[in-house]
Amino acid sequence: MQDIKDRIEWIDIAKGIGIILVIAGHTIALRYSQWLYTFHLPLFFFLSGLVFNQKKYERFFFLFGQKSKQILLPWLAFFLVGLVVCLLIPEWRDALSIRQMLIDFYTTNTNNIQNSSIWYLVCLFVTFCVFWFVNEIKRNKLTITLLIIIAICFLWQKDVLLYVSHNIVKIPCDRLPFKIDSALVACVFFAVAAWNKDKIKEIFLRNYSWWILMVSSIVFLAIAVLNGWTNLNSLDFGRIRLLFYPIAFIGIMLVCFVSKKIAELNNSQIKRWLTMYGECSLLIFGLQSIFIRLYLYAFNKIENLNMELYMDNPKIHQIGSFVVVAFVISPLLIFARNRIKRK
């Protein structure tokens, strides 16, 4: 979904790292992986902003049409894949209901078809649309200050929506439709990258020591754990909400710095693999949740267990599902995609 003709290698590597972290966040128990949620999806919004070509979309109609093809059509394809898989598995088929599917469509969480992760695609589409209108605002000190204040206020959306829904007018699921509320927060990461792409790329051209990155990562991890559970999807932003943006940007920066260092390696197998993961990140992202759930379903049957996504499952299956989906299924998807593309 890049808007530039020539792909930037370290950005693809960052996407590759990001998609592996997404799979880890869905397979490793939340008490161990919750720190990943502070930045792994904000990373994708940031990278999308970094490669966004503003001149290409001078009219909203062009952006809406192009992003519908690039984002909403894949979302529909992944939705249908999830639906077909559910219809083939008796327990999942019995759990399907029209009412719940309508709710899933409204919230875009799509838990009912066992492919909840694709909410991100709808959120990304809305983020593009929101940014187009925000980008039309003339930027000066006053408007930038107002945008910063508004961005901070977005961190209290959940409380406002709950209050309005319970005291003024009922809002379905206490959320705005189609992840509009999450997109308002995601737009912050997108806009910062889109408006400062030249400065950001200059920063990443500098040579940073691996030791500095390691120490920074440890400090970041400590602060992220201290702030507690954050999740862009559910509008949870930690114990100290004002820390959400700084923590997320630090995590994003660390991934980008590491990606740039990896891109500088010569004849590196890990560089080639991460680049391929990044190039196929949309495909992997759209299907990884289904494969994780299929793994858990299979071993629930085999071992008479009751494992669920995100839960504290037996550690062997937390690691097993991560390894199988990240390093067996994902390469197969990449291989299949490349074969089809060559044809």
Could you explain how this protein is built, in words?
The chain contains 16 helices and two strands. The model is unreliable at 1-6 (pLDDT under 50). It is globular and about 60 Å long. With 343 residues, the chain is mainly α. The chain has one domain (9-342). The protein has a two-stranded antiparallel sheet.
Overview in brief:
With 343 residues, this protein is mainly alpha-helical. It has one domain.
- The beta-strand count equals 2
Q: How are the strands ordered across the major sheet?
A: 1-2
Structural Rg: 20 Å
Strand content: under 5%
Q: Could you give a short account of the major beta sheet? A: 2 strands, antiparallel
Shape: globular
pLDDT averaged over residues: 92
| Unreliable runs | 1-6
- Helix- and strand-based class? mainly alpha
Tell me the layout of helices and strands:
Layout: H1 9-27, H2 30-33, H3 40-50, H4 60-88, H5 90-95, H6 98-107, H7 119-135, H8 141-153, H9 157-167, H10 180-195, H11 197-205, H12 210-227, E1 230-231, E2 236-237, H13 244-263, H14 269-279, H15 281-303, H16 315-342
Antiparallel strand pairs: 1-2
Helix pairs in contact: 1-3, 1-13, 1-14, 1-15, 1-16, 3-10, 3-13, 4-7, 4-15, 7-10, 12-13, 15-16
Keywords:
single chain, 343 residues, mainly alpha, 2 strands
